[in-house]
Amino acid sequence: MILIIDDDIGIRTSLNLLLKQAGLAAFAVPEQNSAIKWLRENSPDLILMDMNFTVSTSGQEGLELLRKVKILHPEVPVILITGWGTISLAVEGVKLGASDFITKPWDNNQIVESVRTNIKIAEINNYGEDISDTKCDLRKRYNLTNIVGNSTEIKEVLTSAMRIAPTNATVLITGESGTGKELIAEAIHNNSKRKDKPFIKVNLGGLSSSLFESEMFGHKRGAFTDAHTDRTGRFDMADGGTIFLDEIGELDLQSQVKLLRVLQEQTFEVLGSSKQKKVDVRVICATNRNLPLMVQQGEFREDLYYRINLININLPSLRERVKDIPLLVNHFADKLCKEHDIPTVDIDKEAYSYLKKLPFRGNIRELKNLVERTILMSADSDINTDSFETNQQYEIVNTNISGGLATIDAVEKEMIIKTLDTYKNNISGAARSLGLSRGALYRRLDKYNISYEK
User: What is the DSSP letter of 78?
Assistant: First the structure.
């Protein structure tokens, strides 16, 4: 049963009818006293309430009612309805325990979807199946082939992700750089009802304020000087599927307002067009920034933060899941050897102990880089502690032109050049030393534009 609280008889009637047409039982009351009386005798699945009552246009009566509701039924999700101009009230309501907020004028499908999503999340939280049971192989059950690890920490993450995957809930994935936030986002999409629809990735850190609207919403030919053709925006590309907004903490305040509107209303205007375009998109965001601190410092909008943070999944650092390091090392090693057509390697057990002691500030991405570089730079297939130690020091002092860790291609190119120099451009000798066939070496020489005397 869904309880509707609103002093406008027209809104009560329309919401009641809408929910019943959607197959959801509903009961409506007009004001605070009748709501409290009903709640003392009944336990609803969800409460849908307006923030503004005619006796208190400030919204304080709505906040007071919310406080009482959460005392009577702390586990019941509450969705708030408010106007765009008073969205700050909804934010205050979320701080008091509301699950979601919707602005007027609302879209009927949006309300029904929000109701169903929040009821499902409440059911999962209260009665959900414990899919983290050790008897349950999460990776096989949910086809998580790219997510490696058996530690308690990663199992907890996967349990949360797979529980909310079937819903349409907005998800915020947090964690240090290199912890695998994109992999988790993709796993959620692949196990959702939208899995056969697009999964669109957007790196917001690489978008300037001037390019934001064109990139996200698209533009019509002639919308601005360089708009020579129509452009489809990322939200349009993701229609029916999922949009992954990576590095959302890097978005400037002006763009944050524009993003909030499309998340709130599920509509936008293509640049150069006056028509509103509607999309059905699930939103997953990720950041390595401390968003609550950014909110306090005025660098991130509070209303946007609460809009994207319906569900939060925090990824542990590699330092918090060292048990998974051997599994990750073997995974990266096997994958590299297959991709580069080189013999499999034998990693000494003591090397794992060495790797477990490293700080890995770059987390899994840094470990992957170290494993791949070590294998590519090693003269034979036996990899030991010294092999990793040498290349760990290399990582500290070598960077690529963008200031990050040396890329695999850069390492392989350097290795080939050094080997050719050692063998005085003897292709056969260099190929044997590198563990490659002559044909494989020739392909790499062409790929990296390495000059040599045949």
Answer: E
| Annotation: CATH topology of 2-127 | Rossmann fold (3.40.50)
Chain centroid to Cα 216, Å, comes to 17
Q: Are 4 and 17 in contact (CB under 8 A)?
A: no
CATH 3.40.50.2300 residue spans of the chain:
2-127
Residue 287 bridge partners (DSSP): 174
Q: Residues 311, 81, 260, 249: what is their CA dihedral angle, to the nearest 10 degrees?
A: -40
In angstroms, the CA 427 to CA 373 distance is 22
Q: Which residues pair with 171 in a beta bridge?
A: 284, 311
pLDDT tens digits in sequence order for the chain, 454 residues long: 999 998 889 889 999 999 999 999 999 998 888 999 999 999 999 999 988 765 555 667 888 889 999 999 999 999 998 876 677 888 889 989 998 888 887 888 889 989 999 998 888 877 655 555 544 566 667 778 788 998 999 999 998 999 999 999 999 999 999 999 999 999 999 999 999 999 999 999 878 787 888 889 987 776 666 766 788 889 999 999 999 999 999 999 999 999 998 988 888 888 877 788 888 999 999 999 999 999 999 999 999 999 999 899 999 999 999 999 999 999 999 999 988 888 899 999 999 999 999 999 889 999 999 999 898 888 778 899 988 988 775 554 444 434 444 556 777 788 888 888 777 888 887 877 676 777 778 878 888 888 876 5
Q: Is the peptide bond preceding residue 105 cis, with omega within 30 degrees of 0?
A: yes
The CATH number of domain 320-447, selected from 1.10.40.30, 1.10.10.10, 3.60.140.10, 1.10.8.60: 1.10.8.60
- For the chain, the distance separating the N- and C-terminal CA atoms, rounded to the nearest angstrom, is 80
- Among the CATH numbers 3.40.50.300, 3.40.50.1980, 3.40.630.30, 3.40.50.2000, which is that of 138-316? 3.40.50.300
| Class of residue 6 by CB neighbours under 10 A (exposed 0-12, middle 13-18, buried 19+) | buried
**Can you state the angle between helices 427-434 and 438-447, rounded to 10 degrees?**
100
DSSP at 106: P
User: For residue 29, what are the β-bridge partners?
Assistant: 5
- CATH 3.40.50.300 positions along the chain are 138-316
Facing residues of 103 across strands? 82
Which residue type sits at 97?
G
